[in-house]
Amino acid sequence: MRMLLFLSALIVMVAGCSFSTDQRENDIVKIQASQHIHDIPFENGQGRAIVVFEEQGTVDFVVLAHSLDPEGEYTIFFKTNDNRGVLFGAEDNVKTKVGKFVGELTFKPNAQGELMVSMQNPIRMIEGTQGYLFVIETEEGEEVRRTVPIEITQITQ
């Protein structure tokens, strides 16, 4: 009886703790604003981007990376392969949770090579977003992290 109760509680816990089940089609992750939290790993597995749709009509982009060069400085983009998009920056628009903001548009990881930055945007900024991805580049423009492209559907909340 105790084992059955334990298994039931475990099943309920696992079902309740999952992130959204984003659809993947032709290497594009399709996410919906009606599902509030989306976890998008970097292709090399060393971090992730999290897209959070908030009730007040905003979307929060959170980028978490590890194993970066602690001495390096990095820029973070939400862009297409042809470089249309948004650069994380302007100190007023970003929150650096781990690491620090070191220039107008650059970030420096902590001594362990970890960086966590979030940027809040109006939802209208991402309407019609298709094929966008999160990218981290060095000061020299070398790409060191990237997610798979995403397509955001059902923007109206």
What does this structure look like?
The chain is mainly beta and 157 residues long. It has one domain (22-153): Immunoglobulin-like. The chain is 10% helix and 45% strand. The chain has one helix and 14 strands; from the N terminus they run αββββββββββββββ. It has one helix spanning 2-16; strands spanning 23-25, 28-32, 37-41, 47-53, 58-65, 74-79, 85-87, 94-98, 100-101, 107-108, 115-122, 130-138, 143-146, 150-153. Strands 1, 2, 6, 7, 12, 13 and 14 form a seven-stranded mixed sheet that branches. Strand 12 (130-138) and strand 13 form a beta hairpin. The chain is globular. The N and C termini lie far apart (44 Å). 22% of the residues are buried. The model is unreliable at 1-23 (pLDDT under 50).
* CATH topology description: Immunoglobulin-like
Instruction: Return residue spans where pLDDT drops below 50 for at least 5 consecutive residues.
Output: 1-23
Number of strands: 14
Q: Over the alpha carbons, how many angstroms does the gyration radius reach? A: 17 Å
| The first-level CATH class name | Mainly Beta
Give the mean pLDDT: 82
Largest sheet: 7 strands, mixed
Number of structural units classed as domains? 1
- The proportion of residues forming helix, as a percent range, comes to under 10%
The name of the CATH architecture is Sandwich
Number of helices: 1
Shape: globular
Organism: Caldalkalibacillus uzonensis
Signal peptide: 1-20
Keywords: Signal
Protein name: Intracellular proteinase inhibitor BsuPI domain-containing protein
